[in-house]
Design a protein that fits this description.
This is Probable chemoreceptor glutamine deamidase CheD. Probably deamidates glutamine residues to glutamate on methyl-accepting chemotaxis receptors (MCPs), playing an important role in chemotaxis. It catalyses: L-glutaminyl-[protein] + H2O = L-glutamyl-[protein] + NH4(+). Belongs to the CheD family. Its EC number is 3.5.1.44. The protein is an alpha+beta fold. It has one domain: 60s Ribosomal Protein L30, Chain: A (2-Layer Sandwich), CATH 3.30.1330. Strands 1-3-8-9-10 form a 5-stranded mixed sheet, with no helix packed on it. A 5-stranded mixed sheet has the order 2-5-4-6-7, with helices on one face. A hairpin with a 6-residue loop joins strand 8 and strand 9. The longest helix is centred in the last third of the chain and has 15 residues. It is globular and about 40 Å long.
Amino acid sequence: MTIRVGVADWRVTDDDSLLVTSGLGSCVAVAVHDADAEVGGLLHAMLPEADGPVENPAKYVDSGLDEMLSAMMRLGASPGNLIAKLAGGSSMLDLSIGDSVGARNVAAAERALADAGIDLLSSETGGDSGRSVSFSPTSGDVTIDRVDAEVLVI
């Protein structure tokens, strides 16, 4: 079964479903996996940090990751077994001053994972093209389909 993860959304599963998201420009996809429990989650976040309480925590890397990790724990994941992979954070038509939104999203994801004590095993970030991501919580594989490159599995 395929579970779609929309923009500013997350999903978790403890079966052999595939978690899929598309439309990653400056957004980031954070895939978190507990191999022992076969529990995984995928977050598609738009912005780095929530500024106080928000209506949709998944819109932001920090609050979205917190919410997704809580749901993973409820499915039996163990904090000490979690690993992560990261994709996205392109600089697409970015008109911001300083670091692009994509670069800030990547930095926020790296910081949030480190704060949660989760090892970031691999990432495929930056550049200026869009991505689609498929994540298999059973294997831990993240398949990245870029507009301008070969399909990559991390």
